[in-house]
Amino acid sequence: MAEQQPWSEEEFIEQLRHKGRGYHFHHPFEVMLREGKLDPDQLRGWVANRFYYQKCIPIKDANVMANTPDREVRREWIIRILEQDGHEDYDGGNEAWIRMGEACGLTRQELLDEVHVLPGVRFAVDAYVNFARRQPWQEAVCSSLTELFAPDAHQARIDAFPKHYKWIGEGALDYFESRLTQARRDVDHGLRVTVEYFRTRGQQERALNILQFKLDVLWAMLDAMYLHYVLKECQPRV
After folding, report:
1. pLDDT tens, 132-152?
2. Which of 8, 19, 38, 133 is the most buried (most CB within 10 A)?
3. Pick from 148, 126, 149, 130: which is nearest to 140 by CA?
4. Residue 134: C-alpha distances to residues 129, 144, 218 (Å)
5. pLDDT tens string 48-84
6. Where is the signal peptide (predicted)?
7. Cβ distance 44 to 111 under 8 Å?
8. Cα separations in angstroms, 146 against 47, 83, 94, 160, 211
9. Is 217 exposed, middle or buried (0-12, 13-18, 19+ CB in 10 A)?
10. Rounded Cα distance, 186 and 199, in Å
11. Helices (H), 35-149
């Protein structure tokens, strides 16, 4: 049987965007966060576990750079590492996330030492980093396209924190505010690479599966948090 005709660029991008139905924005734990239903310990747990994901993002991006022979891609992709790790004129996203943790009552050392990271969160995040390390760099780029759906989530958190979590100190929103513009710029590059590389129908369907894998990573992280902090049915490893 002959392979189906590839989607046009516009149809392919629409198929990618359609995956947003499964974005972790819709997870019950994330809904609780936006609706102000997390207690302080649950919110701090979310911040601490999400920081493990944040701190691994530049490692993932370094693997993308290491795997591509294309200098122009590396020159554009390195911006992502600087966005997270910072540079002489900018503290970076990870530092902003630490400020959020401190505003919520966590210490810098707690975050850096990963003392609150749940096994399920660690497993999911490490699977993502290993995917970027082992797969073709174009596939790792495609996996980053969950950024298509991120701005709405960031804006929802910006709206929710001052309304529902008035006990949180200053600096909690710095990360989300910076990502409103950074995520849109980053996704433009990721889409260009993905559209150019995944050309046949089979490749395009592979891209959808890759994006689904990343959506599953983010969803699994919140599953672990919901199980531990809401249902209280598991304990972190000792």
Report:
1. 999 999 999 999 999 999 999
2. 38
3. 130
4. 9, 15, 19
5. 999 999 999 999 999 999 999 999 999 999 999 999 9
6. none
7. no
8. 19, 17, 19, 21, 7
9. buried
10. 21
11. 40-67, 71-85, 93-103, 108-113, 119-134, 137-143
Q: What is the pLDDT of residues 10-41, one digit of tens each?
A: 999 999 999 999 999 999 999 999 999 999 99
Both tokens assigned to 45 = 């747990």
Which residue has 């969160």 as its token pair? 121
What residues pair up with 90 in beta bridges, in sequence order? 87
Kindly state the tokens that stand for 165: 């979590």
Rounded Cα distance between 104 and 126, Å, is 26
* Long-range Cβ contacts of 161-166 (<8 Å, 24+ apart): 163/36, 164/35, 164/36, 165/36, 165/38, 165/43
Residue 136 is given by DSSP the state -
| DSSP 3-state of 166 | coil
Q: Both tokens of residue 219?
A: 């969803």
